[in-house]
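Researcher: Hi, I'm a grad student and pretty new to this. My advisor asked me to get structures for two proteins we've been looking at. I'm not sure of the right format, so I'll just paste the first sequence and hope you can take it from there.
Model: That works fine. Here's the first sequence with its C-alpha cells right after it:
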Amino acid sequence: MPSLQKECDKAAHILKGFIEKGRIPVEVIANAKGLAIFSGFRAAMYLAGAGGSGVVVARLADGSWSPPSAFSVTSGGFGVAYGLDVYDCVCVLNIQEAIDAYTTGETTLGAGGTMAAGPIGGRPHINTKEVKPVWTYTKSRGIYGGLTVDGTIIKERSGVNAEAYGLNITAAQILRGETKWPSTTQLPEVLKMGEGKSTDANVLGAVSTEPTPGDLKE
C-alpha cells in the first residue's frame, strides 16, 4: 500500500494537472472547505468493481489547510467497463457535512451532500446559488469530465495515517488540524497555486511531469 508521502505526491500531481489545464477556477479552490483528491480504476466487464486511494484536506479556522488524511475508494456501481479504465478525481467539498463524511470510517461518496460536476475555468465569478455541497472534477484516458463517481465507498486508511502521524490518530483529528503536516512539500505548494497565492517555483518544479493515472490509455 502506498505511504502517505506517496499519496500526497500523487495528489499534488493530479491537482496540479487540473489547475494547469484551467479546469478548476481559482475561486473554487479558494472558497472550498475541503478537497479530496484521488485516483481509481474500473475493472473489466467480467470483473465488475473498482478501487483506488487518495487524500483529503480540510480548511481550518485560520484559512490554512489541515494535514492530509488517507482514504481508499471502492465501488461496484460504475457499470460496464471494457479493459482497465483508470481515472483521476478531485472532489471540492463546499460544506462541513461533506468533510465530515471522511471522518466516519466508511461512508458513501456523496453522502455528505449533493454531488455535481464543478464549474470549469474561465468564469470570473461563481454565483453562490450555483454552489453544490460537492463539486467533482474527473479525468479518464486524458479526457476531462463524463465520469460519475457518486455511490463510491470511501474508507479511512487508518494504518497509513497511524504510520505517518502516530498510533490512535483519527481522520477527524487530522482534519481538525490537531497534528502537524507530514514532511511533504509538494501538496501544500500546489494548494497555494490553486488558490492563486504565491508559491515556491522550485517545489512546484519538483512535481512529476509524467502523465497522471487518468491520462493512461487502455
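Researcher: Oh nice, that was easy. Here's the second one.
Model: And its structure:
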Amino acid sequence: MVNCGGSCAESEDGKSDGKLVMEETLRAMSEVFGGDGRLWVLDLGLKEEDSCVALTGRRPDSYEWKGKMVKGLKGFVDMWWAFQGDKRDPQD
C-alpha cells in the first residue's frame, strides 16, 4: 500500500505540483504491477483537495475484508476502484 499524495502534498523539487506527482506515481505503479485489476486506488480527498492511497495485488473479497475491518473503516471497502491507465474502472 502506498500513500500517493495529491495536490495537498508538496513535491520534492518544487517545480511540479503534488497532483502531477500523484498521477505519475499511479501510472508508474500501473506499469509495474499491471493494468489487469492489480492496482487499486482509494480517493481520500476532501473538497478541492485530492489525495489517494494505492494497493497492489488482487482485491480481497469484499465480504471477507469487511469482516476483518473495524466498524469505522468498513465503509471504505467498497470505495476502492481499479486503476486502468488514466480512467476509473470500478470493480467489485
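Researcher: Is there anything I should tell my advisor about the second?
Model: You could mention this: Strands lie at 2-5, 39-43, 52-56, 81-84, 87-89.
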